Every structure is written in C-alpha cells, then in structure tokens.
Amino acid sequence: MTDRLAHFVQAHARAMVVIVLSFALAGLAFIFRLPVAIFPQTDFPRIVVLVDNGITPVDIQMLRVTRPIEETIRIVPGVTTIRSVTARGATEISIFFRWDVDILNALHLVQGRISQITPSLPPTCRFYINRLTFSVFPMVGFSITSPTRSQSDLWELAYYNFAPRLYRLPGVAEARIVGGRPPEYHVLVDPQKLNSYGMPLTKVTEALRNNNIISPSGMVQENYHLYLTTVTGLLRTREQIEDTVIDVVRGTPVAVKNLATVVAGERPIYNVVTANGRSAVLVNVLQQPDGNAVKIADSVNAELNDIKKTLPPDIELSTYYDQSVLVRDSISGVVESILIGLALSVLVLLIFLKSWRTTIVAALVIPLAVLIAIVFMKLFNMSFNLMTLGGLAA
User: For an engineered disulfide with 378, which of 25, 30, 173, 233 has Cβ 3.0 to 4.6 Å away?
Assistant: First the structure.
C-alpha cells in the first residue's frame, strides 16, 4: 500500500505540488476572513424567557404569568423539559429542546405561542425571549462615573448618547445599560382632596395613561397631496402633567394639580453599581453570534476614544472588560507554539539526519498543514477561537 502511494505521488508530483500550493494560497486568503471569537458559535438547545411584571406578589405572578406561559409553550415541538423560577414580579422560564431541533425555528414558535396569549396576561408584563448562545455574554464593558453628576444624568448620557453611537457599529448586537436611575415624574396624590371630589385613585392613573399617547387622527387631502396626521399627547414637562384633566365634577374640570403634587424623581432601582469607588453606570456591549470579536472590539474602542474627546472634564469613561484581549493572547500563543515547534523540529532533523533536503521538506510541512486546515475551517463555517486555536497549536 505504501509503495503504491509512493509511486502515485512520484508519477503525479507536479499535480500534487499544484494542489498543495493552491490550498496554501487559499489558506492565506481565508486567514483574514475567518471570524474571531473566544468561543465557537454553538446553538444550545435552550430558550430563556424572562418576564418582568413590576412588584406583583409571588402567588399572583405564578397564577397569572408563569403557569399560562408554561402551558402554552408545551405545545412547541421538540420540547423536553421546562423549568421556571418565580419571584416577586419576575419569572424566568428555561425551555430545553432536543439537540436535533432547529433552535431558530423553535425560538419563532415560542415567540408565536406567547404572543397568542399576551392579551390574557397582565398588561404590565415585559418579555425578553432569546436563545442561549455565547453571544449573550458581553465582549466589551465600560463604566461611566462622575464626582458631581447624579445617577440620572449618567443614565441619560449612556442611553441617549453612548448607546446610539455603539449601535451604528457593524457586528454590535446590543449595548446593555446596567445601573443608573432613569428620570421620571412622580404624582403624589392627596387622599383628602381625592375623597373631596369623590374619585377613585384608578381614575387618576387612567387619565394620565390615556393622555400620554400618540394617536393617528386621519388624513387630509389638499392640492393633490395626501397628508397623514397624528395627534400627540405625550407629557414631557411637569406643567403638562399638572394641567392634565382627570374628570369634570359638577361642571368644573378637575386637573391633576387640584388634587396632587408633581415632583421630579427617579425610577426605583434595586441594585447598586460602583466603579472606581463611585456610583457608576455600566454599558456592556454584546456582539452578534457570527461577529468578529477582534474587529468589533477595535471599532468599539475607537468609538469610545472619539466619545472621550467630547466628554466634559468631570465625566470619567474607563474600560473594565475587553474580551478581545484574551483572543489576541490566544492567537499570539498559537503563533508562538507553531514557531517554537517548527524551530525545534528543524533543529532535531538537522542534527540527527544531517540532510538539508529532509529538513527543508519537514520545515514546509508545518505551515502548509496549518494553511490547509484553515481552508477546511472556512469550508465548515468555523472560526478562530480557544478550541480551534488549541487544535492548530497541537
């Protein structure tokens, strides 16, 4: 068998050289096109459903939210196990599927089933439905601190300034803000005044909710043009909230200012975030599943450098986590291992065999094998990560 292989290679030496060189050139072309990440792209057969329902008691949350969602998603094909954790105003449901199930299709089916029962769920429910992948973990994280500004100011800076600029970058999936206190207005109702008008508290909340909307009002046709019109009632200032009419009592309009006090406040936050010894707002940048971690991190860091140039002197922006550093170190380690292995193999062959021809052939085998492996990595949609780089180094 070995003799036949040797005769075949000898008879087709030029063709074999052309094939090997073609694979090597293709490997050189693909080496800059493969995505780079810390972990391989893996679709775990698991979907996580998170539901936020304010401060609803646990028993009510279980009865009105957790149980209906569990019952409706059991119909999705491929489900093996459903696990749920219910807390005050929060539900976490983990749905496990068989490994042969298309998880993207299963995600759409789960979203469709939940959307069908959404009208029967409490209107205050907020959903987060996603599949479990390595991309759910942040790749770049930075903190925003200031010795003089409030947490509301830092949150607004992160939400209205930083996040939109990061979303424009290719490969960025989400800029998740942690900490801070979103600003809002608090309406403090006086019970005695409310009773004097004979109104229930629900009427105040309904009036504010029904006025704080944008609604289409129809169409206007003029001069061969059709204009779509809308009516906005969004409450943006304290005065607009105070002038909102709740009801008409004995022919007199009753506004919010007649029975309540409107004050500027902050949304209640139940976690504390600090950085560099101060209260801080964190921004975690998540990449798309098929993104290149190194390129995305370079784009994010370049954007952060541009942002720093426009910041006031009392605001400090610092990076506390960068996943691309580990990826770069891994790549450097692989290159170093290949070079050390190549040098040692050449030295050993040269000392013991004392043949330059054999040594040169052996020296070419290692880089050619790596380039050919890169070609097959491209064909099988693989990426440079800790596992593949470890395999190349071995």
Answer: 30
